[in-house]
Write a structure and sequence with these properties.
This protein is α+β, with helices and mostly antiparallel strands. Helices cover about 55% and strands about 5% of the residues. α1 packs parallel to α3. The protein starts with a strand and ends in a 6-residue tail after the last helix. The structure holds glutathione.
């Protein structure tokens, strides 16, 4: 029997979503525990993740209840580190290719996604930045995508795809609904910019990721949209 793996997550957390996507794509057995981020249980920081954030994973040890984690399990946090851990745990899943050059490319894609897409996108959604850096990041990412291929790197779904997909799902919501703390209309405007021929390759790749069963299984678009609606009611006109 394989070791237990528990993913501590939050339904709206894009970082949690990366990890769950990788688990589903690897066909890995896992269970989840929803952490109430507005009222975190005391044991979460003391027994699972000292940083206090989701996602976090416990691996191995005895099969205890998730709200009473065992000191004997390994505790792993930070979404990108957990992605690497899963790729190590499931070497035949293709989450990381075997070829060293392709592995490096996957890691580079993850790095670029984290710094140049994820960060500016979430800053834009929070109304802290214009979308200029989002577009720059997407242009950079597009430059890494090879013509005629469906995946970020090579011919297989990898942690690079898992890393960017939750951002793509949120990009879809904000460009279709204009929901965010940014000034009214800016979400739609970003969507219009992305509809141009300049971003055709990125659009094709993004659609492929959004169509994957793993994304549909792990991302509740309606729930996330409703949350955005309630969260972003006060708007700059
Ligand atoms: N760099 C972290 C970011 C994780 C993160 O910011 N998680 C948020 C939810 S999306 C969280 O747990 N926030 C609760 C808190 O900061 O108290 C990662 O990639 O895992």
């Amino acid at each position: 029997m394989s070791e237990q793996l528990t993913l501590y997550l939050h339904k709206l957390s894009p970082y949690s979503a990366k990890v769950e996507l990788a688990l589903v794509e690897a066909n890995a057995p896992y269970r989840t525990y929803q952490v109430d981020l507005s009222n975190k249980p005391e044991w979460f920081a003391s027994k699972v993740n000292p940083i206090g954030k989701v996602p976090a994973v416990t691996y191995g040890g005895p099969n205890v209840e998730p709200d009473d984690p065992s000191p004997l399990s390994a505790k792993i946090a930070e979404s990108n580190i957990i992605l690497e851990f899963l790729a190590d745990l499931y070497p035949d899943s293709g989450l990381l290719p075997k070829d060293p050059v392709l592995r490096a490319k996957v890691r580079f894609f993850v790095d670029v996604t984290t710094k140049q897409v994820e960060a500016p996108l979430y800053d834009f959604i929070r109304g802290q930045e214009s979308y200029d850096n989002v577009l720059k990041g997407i242009e950079f990412i597009q430059g890494l995508l090879e013509e005629g291929r469906d995946f970020a790197v090579g011919d297989h779904y990898s942690i690079a795809d898992a890393c960017i997909s939750p951002g793509l799902a949120r990009l879809k919501i904000i460009t279709e609904t204009d929901l965010g703390k940014f000034p009214v209309g800016m979400g739609y405007k970003l969507g219009e910019e992305l509809k141009g021929p300049k971003f055709a390759r990125f659009r094709k790749y993004a659609q492929g990721m959004l169509d994957r069963p793993s994304l549909k299984q792990t991302h509740d678009e309606e729930y996330t949209t409703t949350f955005f609606k309630t969260r972003f009611t006060e708007r700059v006109q």
